[in-house]
Amino acid sequence: MAEQFVELLEMAPTSIDGGGLEFVRGSLRTTLSIWKDRYDRSLFGWMVHTLYSGPGDRMDGFGGVGIRIDHPSPSGDAGPTDIPPAACYPWPTGSAPLASEVTAGVTHYGPSSLRFVRDSHDLGLLLLADTHVHRDGVWSFTPANSEPGRLAKAILLARQCGDQDLERAAVAKLRSRGEEPVAPHSDHLFRQAVADWSRQYAKATGIDLSDLAELKRKRPQYPDIP
Predict the structure, then answer these.
(1) The pTM is what?
(2) How many whole angstroms separate alpha carbon 51 and alpha carbon 199?
(3) 157 in the same domain as 133
């Protein structure tokens, strides 16, 4: 099936591994994954992830430094949700061709999903987004409950790339949102959640995020804006 997807996309992947098509552009690695439903093996779905490759596999336990790009279902529903999309396409039997809704979806939304993230700076801005970002009929999966973790990833990305503009935007958001509660835990502040994630990311990657970890204190000192 992967080869059929390549024909529909009219884009040559860097590599194919089972149901995964990988496309590499500079420091970005974008993967289109084809997966079967774990409960109903007659159904399958496809989705796209774009990751920054700098940390290697050290951030794999946290979903990598990147985002998922979602597309409308065959019904045309383009409403982002905070849960992963369900498998909704029929798995072809034998040598049967792909269903028309599969070919239409891959042809229409595949290329825009694969090109969604423009570069590492753009990836950082998407990580900082307050909610899902729409482009060319598809959107980034950036639910509100992942904001603290995404902000910490954006700063990690900025520091590894030396992107001061990105770090400046991230610190500005951190200062603006830091004292807000993180729902549904009204006694847990945004800055404290950022600190929690930063400790874990720093331990995994060896990148210095100690100033973010200090935000757990009662009287924190926010990072300076570079």
Answers:
(1) 0.93
(2) 20
(3) no
